[in-house]
Amino acid sequence: MTERSEGINKHSTSGHSSDEGGLMTAVAETDLARHFEHTIERDQRIEPRDWMPEAYRATMIRQIAQHAHSEIIGMQPEGDWITRAPSLRRKAILLAKVQDEAGHGLYLYSAAETLGVDRADLTTRLIERRQKYSSIFNYPTPAYADVGVIGWLVDGAAICNQVPLCRSSYGPYARAMIRICKEESFHQRQGYELLMTMMRGTDAQRAMVQDAVDRWWWPSLMMFGPPDQDSPNTARSMAWKVKRHTNDELRQRFVDMTVPQAEALGVTLPDPDLRWNPERGHHDFGPIDWDEFKRVLRGDGPCNAERIDRRRRAHEEGAWVREAAAAHAAKRRTP
Amino acid sequence: MNDLYEVFVRGKRGLNHVHVGSLHASDDEMALRNARDLYTRRNEGVSIWVVKASHITASSPDEKDPFFAPSADKVYRHPTFYDIPDDVPHM
Q: Does the complex come out with an ipTM higher than 0.90?
């Protein structure tokens, strides 16, 4: 554990010491737990040095770290297109977007560190596959239209997921999410604009867009996680207000938002069962291939090995930069 | 890149510096440059402070902390403590 952010060197923990022995500690713990629950009930935020149940801390570390890893790994699928983007304008936009993903990763590592973990350690856990990242980034980007579709669908799904997280009960995470959501809207809009431009082009360009939509639609729906009946932690996460809607609720919201966007764009979403249900007031859609989801999450997706390998190489090949910076700082400290 | 720095950004002239997050850097200058790249990519600030996290001494942020208790029971510090008749103007 490293001493952490947002208030270090706690100079007074009056009343919560354990030197009176086990009974006093147990009483104090119950008190603290009640205060924690009360804070959440009143929709107030838990801050880094507040008492929190160990399970809450572990859940937040896992959630924020997975999110941070997703942003960092998420640079790779689109990063390949930076040098191949068709114009200087598109290059500059894509570069700014991928730089944002790096920034989002760093905001999130910063939030995770408030819980007493070290980001170097989190990077190690990612590289050693002890922590996960979003399954979506294990799919390849063979065509330039993929850049547009990722912005539209993948970032669109991410926004659906992330907007409610701005009200997460964990303060540093909620604040990071507010900043991320503000920046994310540019990501989605640049993608949709890119696709509109291609749809106004040649038949081959329109076919390229449709092909990318066909490949990304189902993996985008999987981004919301397993169906509610297979998501055992949902109830507790909702009670803690670290999750505000269930996976299926968010997935439905995304489908309802996306269908008219697809119509306006002139593409077909690859689901024969997709149709408006006037009784439910929502779109019905076909079954999701959860076996594929599990396979990709387990590490057997099309690009899992490549993504982790590249992250590991970047970390190892960047070691000399970290060492040089430390040596430079040390040299300047000695007169 | 061993030191953890806390980052504070002044949004514009006249506003306070506000804490925005943290980063790692090997010295103060690098912390400042990294803070510019990380927290002000869209014109969010006109000034940045970075300070080593280990140099910050903090109270508990919990409002139930006894540290803040002495300020809670002094209602006479607030203007609403004093009853003034409605017909006394400009009070």
A: no
